[in-house]
Amino acid sequence: MQKMLYLCTRKGSNNTSIMKKITFLFVALVCALMCFAQETTSKEAITRIGVSQYDYLGTEIDKKEYARILQTCPVAFKQYSNGKKLRNIGWGLFGGGLAMFGAGLAVTFATPYNDVAGGWAGIALFSAGIVTFCGAGIPLIGVGYYRENNAYKVYNSKCGAAATPITFNLKADHNGLGIAMQF
User: Fold this and answer.
1) Could you count the other beta carbons within 10 Å of the beta carbon of residue 167?
2) What is the model's pLDDT at position 87?
């Protein structure tokens, strides 16, 4: 080891220039990795802070303002409006299914024991109600709310300021070595 160190530090040796190049490359690599770790995003993105509360440019906004901001980004607004439609359809199916469930129970219990057709009609209506509000209504409500409430992620990635992050990069040219900020 001492012999290697001695060879690398002798004056006039080619090994010193090699060691300088290796050291420079190592330092440049470390600087480049540190610069990429410094990547930040602008504060113009939408963040969700509550159930129906969002933050935009440091101020809290409600659902109406949230929808207005999303209208500036067609992709995000399409997801938002799609989610809103699914949610409304889901609530309609939930309510209709619940009404069919109640009507089926009423028909089943109101028919006399000797009326078999009326009993089967009540059971069919009861069953169709359960399938409608549990099998279709509840899943559509969940998917609709999810799409509506998470449209801000599409906005941030496609149209918001987060699409153009501020980055610091290592730049080397004929003038020397430096750090470049891109925004």
Assistant:
1) 15
2) 95
Note the helical H segments in the chain: 2-9, 14-37, 63-70, 74-110, 116-130, 138-149, 151-154
Give pLDDT tens digits for 51-62. Answer: 788 888 888 998
Tokens representing 151 are 């449209």
What band does 42 get if pLDDT is binned at 50, 70 and 90?
Answer: very low
For the chain, the residue count is: 183
- Which residues are bridge partners to 46 per DSSP? 56
- pTM value is 0.61
Dihedral angle of Cα 85, 146, 45, 49, to the nearest 10 degrees: 120
Of 46, 56, 42, the closest CA to residue 149 belongs to: 46
Can you say whether the dihedral through the CA atoms of 169, 170, 172, 175 is positive or negative?
positive
Q: Determine which helix (DSSP H) or strand (DSSP E) holds 173, and give its type and residue range.
A: strand 167-173
Do 125 and 99 form a contact (C-beta atoms < 8 A)?
A: no
DSSP-derived letter for residue 161 is G
Distance CA 120, CA 178 (A): 82
